[in-house]
Amino acid sequence: MDNRAVEKAVLQMQFSFEETERCEVRKPRFRSGRDSGWTARARLLCAQLSLPGLAEKVVVKWNGRMRSTAGRATWPDAVVELNPALLEISTSETERTFLHELAHLVAYERAGNRRIKPHGPEWRRACCHLGIPGERAGHNLPLPSRTMRRRWRYFCPECWAVIERVRRMENCSACYACCLKYNRGEYDERFRFVEKRIS
Ligand SMILES: [Zn+2]
Ligand SMILES: [Zn+2]
Questions:
Q1: What is the reported pLDDT for 168?
Q2: pLDDT tens digits, one per residue of 27-41
Q3: Which end of the chain is more exposed for a tag (fewer CB within 10 A), N or C?
Q4: CB under 5 Å of ion ligand 1: residues
Q5: Which ligand ends up closest to the CA of 14?
Q6: Distance 100 CA to ligand 1 centre (A)
Q7: pLDDT of residue 9
Q8: Residue 71: strand pairing partners
Q9: Which ligand is nearest to the CA of 74?
Q10: 14-23, 92-101, 177-186: which range is least confident on average?
Q11: What is the Å distance from ligand 1's center to 78 Cα?
Q12: CA distance 107 to 80
């Protein structure tokens, strides 16, 4: 293959956090690296679309360092990266982001050395084949806390910030402001939220 002709691409999808969503830092130890289940699904889908070459090399990974990026597709590496925060929003959003990113890889694989637009007709066609017709280029992920009643309250032991949430936080969630101030934005046990149930 002529390497010069291969178009390198990194396609990112952003999502906007509500103010309250940004207050939390999750301990990153869980879910980073390759996910064998999602990778197997990606491979099966590519095989079903008669793309054995892509089916052989595609890999799906979790990237716990992603902040405002929901998902990312890298070509020609054929890697799909997903933000583990998606799992807290919903499984259907995780699924949709996965298929959106996989569609990029399908479009590039089919295009070969031909140049294509990231969200052009080739990508839209791949979205149809992957079961997400009418998928848009950008994502505005719905955040359920807007409409649902908040049941959990969290206190930062350092700055006494108070956050209310609909869903219960993961065990290892810390105050973002304090982690940013004292620990470069990384998770820090000292600023772990203290939980209280409301109602
Ligand atoms: Zn995209
Ligand atoms: Zn704090």
A1: 82
A2: 655 567 899 999 999
A3: C
A4: 11
A5: 1
A6: 6
A7: 72
A8: 13, 82
A9: 1
A10: 14-23
A11: 14
A12: 14
| Alpha carbon of 11 to ligand 2 centroid (Å) | 34
Distance 181 CA to ligand 1 centre (A): 33
- List pLDDT tens digits, range 64-114: 888 777 889 999 999 999 988 888 777 888 899 999 999 999 999 999 989
60 conformational bin, left if phi > 0, alpha if psi -120 to 50, beta if neither: beta
Cα(172) to centroid of ligand 1, in Å? 31
87 backbone dihedrals φ, ψ, rounded to 5°: -65, -25
Dihedral angle computed from the Cα positions of residues 159, 190, 171 and 146, in that order, rounded to the nearest 10 degrees? 20
Of all ligands present, the nearest one to the C-alpha of 98 is: 1
CA–centroid distance, residue 66 to ligand 1 (Å): 16
Q: List the domains of the chain with CATH numbers.
A: 3-129 (3.30.2010.10), 148-197 (no CATH)
DSSP-based three-state secondary structure for 83: coil
- Tell me, in angstroms, the distance from the centre of ligand 1 to residue 168's CA: 30
Indicate the DSSP class of residue 144: G
Strands 59-62 and 79-82: parallel
